[in-house]
UniProtKB/TrEMBL annotation:
Keyword Transmembrane assigned: yes
This protein's name: LHPL2 protein
Pfam family, one: L_HMGIC_fpl
Keyword check for Magnesium: no
Alphabetized UniProt keyword annotations: Fertilization, Membrane, Transmembrane, Transmembrane helix
Organism: Uria aalge
Coiled coil residues, start to end: none
Length: 228
């Protein structure tokens, strides 16, 4: 018989697992890993509302994508164009970034799988007599290691020609040059830290769903068990 068990700790672990997976996925897809040096505004860059020149634009560069401003030949306006600069994996600007993409993709895939499984932990608490929380926690720990490897290798690619075109000639491995780090990089770091927190917290979720009070509720014949 299926028992739906909901506790404060198990629900918090589930929500945090979902948030972490989405945060890492969004960061990976974003082009805001590096913020390039400002492009000086030209005489055409005039704000129609104020009549003054617009602020210098900072192009951004991601692992496989970028955002830049393009000029229209016949119009005195400029649009921001975002999209992948690499049409395939081999066109990613640096071998280090290719490795970063692989490690992050594997870690994110594991996190998304755990986030999907975590939704069903209310009904299924064990698989082949092993706690599903412990299994998921172990997978989250492994995913965190993949994410760390990816984030360590990423700065080694700052010396590639693509990064130099955005960050200036002084950019090199682990040196930003004229660039600064964007929100996507910080989000990936924060998500990695939360991944390990999730891995540790999964043990608390397992303890909460297998407590004596839960067993008492099951023995009383209750199918829906909600505990704080």
């Amino acid at each position: 018989m299926c028992h739906v068990i909901v506790t404060c700790r198990s629900m918090l672990w589930t929500l945090l697992s979902i948030v972490v997976a989405f945060a890492e996925l969004i960061a990976f897809m974003s082009a805001d890993w590096l913020i390039g040096k400002a492009k000086p505004s030209s005489s055409e860059d005039v704000d129609n509302r104020t009549g003054g020149s617009q602020e210098p634009y900072h192009p951004t560069l991601g692992i496989y994508g970028r955002c830049t401003r393009i000029s229209h030949m016949q119009l005195s306006r400029r649009d921001t164009l975002c999209g992948p600069y690499a049409e395939n994996f081999n066109e990613i600007a640096s071998g280090f970034w290719q490795a970063t993409a692989i490690f992050l993709a594997v870690g994110i895939l594991i996190l998304c799988a755990v986030a999907f499984v975590s939704v069903f932990t209310m009904c299924v608490q064990s698989i082949m007599k092993k706690s599903i929380f412990n299994v998921c926690g172990l997978l989250q720990g492994i995913a965190g290691l993949f994410l760390i490897l990816g984030l360590i290798l990423y700065p080694a690619g700052w010396g590639c020609q693509k990064a130099i075109s955005y960050c200036g000639p002084y950019a090199s491995a682990y040196k930003l040059g004229d660039c600064s780090l964007g929100w996507a990089f910080y989000t990936a770091i924060g998500g990695t830290i939360l991944t390990f927190i999730c891995a540790v917290f999964s043990a608390q979720a397992e303890i909460a769903t297998s407590s004596d009070k839960v067993q008492e509720e099951i023995e009383e014949g209750k199918n829906l068990i909600c505990l704080l």
